[in-house]
Amino acid sequence: MAKSTSNRIISTPSQYAREHYLYVQEVGTLQSLEPHISKRQNLSSFLFFAVLDGEGILSYEAKTYSLSAGDCVWLDCTHPYSHESSANAPWSLMWVHFNGKDAAEYYESYKQQGNPFLFRPRNLVLFTNTLSQLYQAQQDTASLADIISHKYITDLITLCFTENRTEHSGEYSILEKLNQIHAYLEEHYGEKITLELLSSQFFISKYHLSREYRKTFGSNLSEDLTARRISHAKSMLRFSDGSVESIAQSCGFQDAGYFIKVFKKSEGMTPLEYRKKW
């Protein structure tokens, strides 16, 4: 007698998709009929699943966790893991195994920001709808399945990041303060900005600011400020006749030579080459 019923699609993406997209390996649904342990290790894959109903247990990173309806899990399958449905309340799941370009980098960034691999979203429907669309894409659009699946996997990853941001970035007052600092950088990008200045102005330890800013926004403060300055510089290069020196000054670079060096590292060309191309 079967221990579960499932609907799944096993996908073999094109070589182009493997090199350029996030792609589906398997996607489907499962209804357990009795306890059954699924064990995996050393899989070149990432697994996301949502518990729709029932209960079960998950073993991962040398610990065991109880799962119930409403929980979501995102795992790196290169690590050993197992999961088993409860006998008293067999669970039903929606899931996808995926991999592809930047998948490992997304997961590493997610973990570095302090986000949990097991969480309970406020609105599970957002996740299950995305999984349903992903399943449908694999069924109905053979010619476009790879690019559409990439879109829905990206949506799923984005949901994981945004769902956990407010719950795991500390007190709301800290998040509010970080958003204020984020906005301050955009408004004052042309001025001299230091950690010490921000620490004093927003009444937050510079070490705490540096750590929490990266956890919340995914980049450190100096990288973010430089990116904003480069973006404004590109706009000025395209839509004004200002010299490289004056644009550098306007965007917060006190030295034109340093501006050219940073710009070339970012864009692969000098400011004047950028102006000519665009």
Tell me the layout of helices and strands.
Layout: E1 4-10, H1 15-20, E2 22-32, E3 37-40, E4 46-53, E5 55-60, E6 63-68, E7 72-76, E8 81-85, E9 92-100, H2 103-112, E10 118-119, H3 124-140, H4 145-165, H5 172-187, H6 195-202, H7 206-217, H8 221-239, H9 244-250, H10 256-267, H11 271-277
Helix pairs in contact: 3-4, 8-11
If you had to describe this structure to a student in words, what would you say it looks like?
- The protein contains eleven helices and ten strands.
- A six-stranded antiparallel beta sheet has the order 1-2-9-4-7-10.
- It is an alpha+beta fold.
- The protein has two domains: 4-165, Regulatory protein AraC (Jelly Rolls); 172-277, Orthogonal Bundle (Arc Repressor Mutant, subunit A).
- The protein has helices at 15-20, 103-112, 124-140, 145-165, 172-187, 195-202, 206-217, 221-239, 244-250, 256-267, 271-277; strands at residues 4-10, 22-32, 37-40, 46-53, 55-60, 63-68, 72-76, 81-85, 92-100, 118-119.
What's the gist of this structure?
With 278 residues, the chain is an alpha+beta fold. The protein has helices at 15-20, 103-112, 124-140, 145-165, 172-187, 195-202, 206-217, 221-239, 244-250, 256-267, 271-277; strands at residues 4-10, 22-32, 37-40, 46-53, 55-60, 63-68, 72-76, 81-85, 92-100, 118-119. The protein contains eleven helices and ten strands.
Overall form:
elongated
CATH topology of the largest domain: Jelly Rolls
Largest sheet: 6 strands, antiparallel
Helical segment count:
11
N- to C-terminal separation?
66 Å
Fraction of residues in β-strands: 15-25%
- How many domains is the backbone divided into? 2
* Secondary-structure element string: EHEEEEEEEEHEHHHHHHHHH
Helical content, roughly? 40-55%
Based on CA atoms alone, the radius of gyration comes out at: 23 Å
